[in-house]
Amino acid sequence: MSEEKIPLAGVIGSPIAHSKSPQLHTHWLRTYDLPGHYIPMDVNTEDLEHVLRTLPKLGFVGANVTIPHKERALEIADLITDRATLIGAANTLIFRPDGKIHADNTDGYGFITNLKQSAPDWDPKAGPAAVLGAGGAARAVITSLLDAGVPEILLSNRTKVRAEALRSDFGKRLVIYDWVQAGNMFEDAATVVNTTSLGMIGKTPLRVPLDGLRKGTLVTDLVYAPLKTNFLAEAENRGCVIVAGLGMLLHQAVPGFERWFGLRPDVDSATRAAALR
Ligand code: NAP
């Protein structure tokens, strides 16, 4: 009689010690009393392909990939979902029994699901969305906002060519603003998103003027350390509906967990507490 295999998964990045994913997935494994382990793995870029080809042989059923491997993982994968292709990066890998690596990107799913759970009255069709930043996370956010029915994206990034590159990928529904005029985007926006790392603990504060923010506008920040950024606190003072970034992190983990361990986990207050432990 063959012994049943215990499924293994983990998160691959460098550095990786700060990642909240191990405590999150371990919390779900324990909550639902499922067999399995989820571990952090610090891997260099030059070793990534070898590691990804070896992990399935060790009993791994999949992995999350994070900075700096999200783009390289997509190149290595054998099969890629449409949304990962559009975003140009992977964050969730499934190791199939036939040996093929299947790459997906669940950041956009996590972003939108967080908005829908935290602000159920949010209407994506209500007007343009203003997006600060044009890095990897911005691609996922823009893809999911357009998919949800946002009519137009107003986009501003310190390095303008990065914003222009997004416009050439996403087309006329993106309108680019100079970084010094980023605050002007807010006057017409029904939704405002900070996808830059500004405002994160230990980083430069976000100094874009917020006078244009209108009461009732939905404002969200991808930065989740601190949980409520100064940007969100100021938006709240101006009567905006605010949504913190931690929920995106929790929701983006759901599809991977379900594929690897066979059960769709809930994102609830216990999940939040586990991620913050
Ligand atoms: P990234 O690709 O490195 O992009 C960083 C972005 O921040 C770029 O737009 C960059 O502008 C901007 N930026 C950095 N320093 C700046 C400064 N001093 N002044 C103006 N702009 C500056 O990183 P990413 O992967 O997109 O991640 C961005 C943030 O989102 C990070 O804080 C990350 O932790 C967070 N995030 C959160 C979640 C979640 O689940 N909540 C998921 C993904 C990412 P330039 O192009 O001009 O450099």
Overview of the molecule:
- This protein is α/β, with parallel strands linked by helices and 277 residues long.
- The protein folds into two domains: 8-105 and 249-276, Leucine Dehydrogenase, chain A, domain 1 (Rossmann fold, 3-Layer(aba) Sandwich), CATH 3.40.50.10860; 108-244, NAD(P)-binding Rossmann-like Domain (Rossmann fold, 3-Layer(aba) Sandwich).
- Helix content is 35%, strand content 18%.
- Helix 1 (21-31) packs across helix 11 (269-276), helix 5 packs across helix 6 and helix 5 packs across helix 9.
- The chain starts with 7 loop residues before the first strand and ends with a helix.
- The model has no long low-confidence stretch (mean pLDDT 96).
- NADP nicotinamide-adenine-dinucleotide phosphate is lined by residues 107, 110, 133-138, 157-159, 162, 195-198, 200, 204, 222-224, 245, 248-249, 252.
